[in-house]
Protein 1
Amino acid sequence: MNTPSFRAPAPAGRLTLDGCTVVTMDAAGTEHRSGHVVIEGSRITAVGAGPAPEAAGRDGAARVVDARGCVVTPGLVNCHHHLYQWVTRGLAVDDTLFGWLTTLYPVWAGLDEDIVRSAATAGLGWLARTGCTTSMDHHYVFPEAGGDLLAAEVDAARRVGLRFLPTRGSMDLGRSQGGLPPDHVVEDLDTILTASAEAVDRYHDPSPDSMLRIGLAPCSPFSVTGELLKQAALLARDKGVRLHTHLAETLDEQDYCREHFGCSPVEYVESLGWLGDDVWLAHGIHLDDRAIGTLGATGTGVAHCPSSNARLGAGICRSRELRDAGVPVGLGVDGAASNESASLLEEARHALLFARAAGGPQALSTRDALRMATIDGARALGWDDQIGSLEPGKLADLAVWRVDTLPHVDIADPVAGLVLGSPPPLELLLVGGRSVVERDRLVTLEEEAVARDAADASRRLLDRAAGH
Ligand code: ZN
């Protein structure tokens, strides 16, 4: 492949990728060992086997990229994250979820908008470098003097160039009321609902080409009140936006729900109007057959976060059973403070390995793992009409992976190379036809400056927590 062909494309022009393996992730699972993808402006106009037709991609106006030696997939879709955590990686590394949270809440109490902007820029930049084109974010810590944290992460996504679904998270159940977080990091119900409504009114763009959609995301059963969950669901449905929360992550949470509500986590949120095809839940590990059936029957999605779940020793999501029940199961890196890698392709690998370790060799196929990282993730986010597969008419969000170098060159199945092998070099990442990564480098921002900013932000936050 020659270098100039991977310069940033003009979004208004036509771009043809030729000679590559194309893994479409469409409903039929269509793959072309040597094929093409044609992009006009922000959308895909043709996908097929062999070279692109002259009329589609090879006339004088077209920019044709020789993509031999590469695999093209839909851009990966990240269904669960806490971007601010980028600047608190490597803390409480041998603790349980509740122990880890208790250590980190006081540190996060020092967040401000500059720190969140730096953390989100680094986190989104790294997601882009590892093949992700759309990410959600779940931000739920809003210190009183922190400034406009949602605006800061929206700004970060615009600068990096990723499609973004930040959720206005929240906590209103402090320790004095029986919750896990200290009182000084929670907000009151009215403040949360007002800020949530404002976030939707200010940012939510439901249009087909949208780069920015908003969701509402009270944090978890042990950090928010039932009243907040109820009111947030009413507000989200009134505004036409999606709902997200952590659920069934640990046995501690299960015990907490039994003790405080007399039921399982799924029964608890069901009683508050929290199941439906406009809801997706992070983790969904400790689910019995009945709970899985309920999620399937209601169309509720799950964001499976295998690396974070393993890092915190929380357990292994029953992804096979969830998929069999018709649950849209996407993948999430979870916050970088409980998954220091924060790379989505690695989640596909871990989803497959953990599913097979727990459920045998047929528990999850390589294609299923890649589907979870792409089209099924898009379903979980309610965005599968526009993204998640390579099909004419869909947005041109795609990843071009190089598989002709030492780690992958002789592998018989390039999808196995992606899912089971080392993460390959990322030759090109397009979001709506715009180039975000070329040859393993961000092209929208200067990586060294992003890294420096994140390091400075981390130092400020940890100094603040230490009382300096
Ligand atoms: Zn999380």
Protein 2
Amino acid sequence: MRFSSCLSRPGLHLWSALLLGAAVASPVFAQKFEGLALTPPMGWNTWNTFAGNISEPLIRETADALVASGLRDAGYVYLVIDDCWSLKERDAGGNLVPDPAKFPSGMRALGDYLHAKGLKFGIYSCAGDKTCGGYPGSWGHEFQDALTFASWGVDYLKYDWCNRGTADAHDAYKRMRDALHAAGRPVVFSMCEWGQNKPWEWAGDVAHLWRTTGDIYDSYDGRKSWEMGWKRILDLQCDLVPSNGPDGIGKYAGPGHWNDPDMLEVGKGGLTLAESRAHFSLWCLIAAPLMAGNDVRTMTPAVRAILTDRDVLALDQDPLGRQGFRALAEESHQIEIWAKELSHQEWAVCALNTGRTAADLTVEWGRLNFLHGVYDLRDLWTKQAAGDTSKPSTARVEAHDVMLFRLTPRP
Ligand code: GLA
């Protein structure tokens, strides 16, 4: 009797309170939400086309266009409002306030609109005390802001790295991860520290995706010396850690934790249609998160066809989750070959014309030593069977365009 009295109700309450306190305070219990990004997240983000010029009508019209164009059904479900959505000051209670001139109905109503359309709601903040655009960042307000986002129905947070003083990246991103977890609403956590602190080495249990480079621009190789076009960013996926061989940083990516080479420029004015097709193909080959950034309300049928191509998207979304690598580069033949391992011993192989002129590109299958035996070939852009790997494949390819094959092993 005396023993059981130790387990009397007041005693239990005391212990549960102590345990709960420890659980909340201790990082041992902190974690990211698992199971949210088993394949690379897909969606649309305001930044690449609209920057600070964002508003409630733009978001609603874009949501409608994502549905009407078939992008949502192809998998682009996260609609992410990037920088410049709030007032420049927090309210008296320290809360972030959506700019009422841009978002008169507020964020909860907008989140409800997106959810009713079968979309998910993404928003942006920053680990510093101000965002890159000079709006309030979440530094020192992480737990408060995470609760605010949860109350609006936010499903995805992009978290930037401007104005962070001497903050340690690991600590800063872990704090927001823990804040999101404490708020209790599952949120995909997208780190945006531009690869400055080698996030691929440590962010696997912090975030679902992490940017690996600075910002992308809508060109093949950058129009100004400081601009990175998509080809430069692609190369960096191998070249950032050359000691890992062709795999580069690819070996750190997989289901639930992805390298993010930045958002898509597909359909933007600085790219030819061929460059958009190649950019899209190669982002799928490197298992990139696919955040469209074009104006989907006015895109051409050709751009829509690229973004929604099921065969190419299937490479990106393959459940094995392997990031592709550069298998071969021969400047004299203006060719690069990129490859991605798929489930069920299949492969994807992409030949890029790196030259400024059309050229006959040849894929010599025998030189790709990761292939074993003979594979049947399907050309994913022409939608044709394309023979097999027993002899080289040659085709005329426009400047900065690609040939893209899916390889299925002969039984
Ligand atoms: C940084 C990010 C961009 C975008 C802007 C917003 O530059 O890398 O993707 O979010 O901030 O100011």
